Amino acid sequence: MAFNLGLYTRLYMPLCRAYARRTVGDRPADPIMAFLCGLDFLKVHGYRPRFKDPRTFEEKLCHRMLYDRNPLLTFLSDKLKVRDHIARTVGHEHLVPLIWSGDDPEEIPFSELPQKYVIKTNHGCGYNIIVKDGAELDKEKTKNQVRKWLSENYCQDHLIGLEWAYKNINPTILVESFLDDHGKEPVDFKFFCFSGRSEYLQMNFDRFSNPSEKTFDRELRPLDLWQGFEQHQGPIKVPHNISEMLQVAESLAGNLDFIRVDMYNVDGRIFIGELTCYPGGGRIRWIPRTYDYVLGDKWKVQFHPAIPARGR
Known about the structure:
Elements: H1 2-24, H2 31-45, H3 57-67, H4 71-77, H5 82-90, E1 98-102, E2 117-121, E3 128-131, H6 139-150, H7 154-157, E4 173-177, E5 188-194, E6 197-205, E7 212-217, E8 222-223, E9 230-231, H8 242-253, E10 258-266, E11 269-276, H9 290-298
Parallel strand pairs: 7-9
Antiparallel strand pairs: 1-4, 2-3, 2-4, 5-6, 5-10, 6-7, 7-8, 10-11
Helix pairs in contact: 1-2, 3-9
């Protein structure tokens, strides 16, 4: 099994990425790319997808990755540019403070940064370095890591090459304030919003040490739903201003058919983490699978098959 998985990772996924890079570009995927994606989907989820007539959440997410070329998805996925949207829509007070941004790792002003901060780039997922003690940071190693991230096109270089919203983002380095929740990482609140209405809330705990999660419906009733991490077993404290968080999430979601709004709550202050167009890259296994259909039913797909011609 391990050998087969390694073979799949080393051969099949690069094959998919190469085909997507050479034939798809900024166009909706052709039937061959859809077939390649379908095989990957079958392997991940265990059932044959219907991308042209999607029913489940994961089918609709892959439908978006395969065919939807709405430029708004790129704007929302750019962790630097989306800050303007957040500020205009819900206010500057909900932005994680930005300390510095630039495109050259050599220019990161390490000597001027506070003890704790976060280094990230704006053009993908997982491009984060959590710095809890700047004095202990290996700065050369950090600059090399950031330089590697900047050289990547997240869409073309990861998974099977279909997370199109990241493809045309100009890579930039961001240094943000570290959000400290009494010595711990704050809980990550993820609001699943459909047609401007938040239907589900996933709470992620201790993301960088001992991750666990719990999912709730709109009325904050806990669900017996597993999405990859262990179920959180400890006490769960719901913020006193959870209704405000819900309102902020829905304001940012607007009239989009689907978006996940991620945020933090530190002593009652609400900070937006990011807006996510492709949660899990289409690879979330919903257990029980019933929820794949339940969430899919909430998603009324709006289709944007092509990018408008330049100048229109």
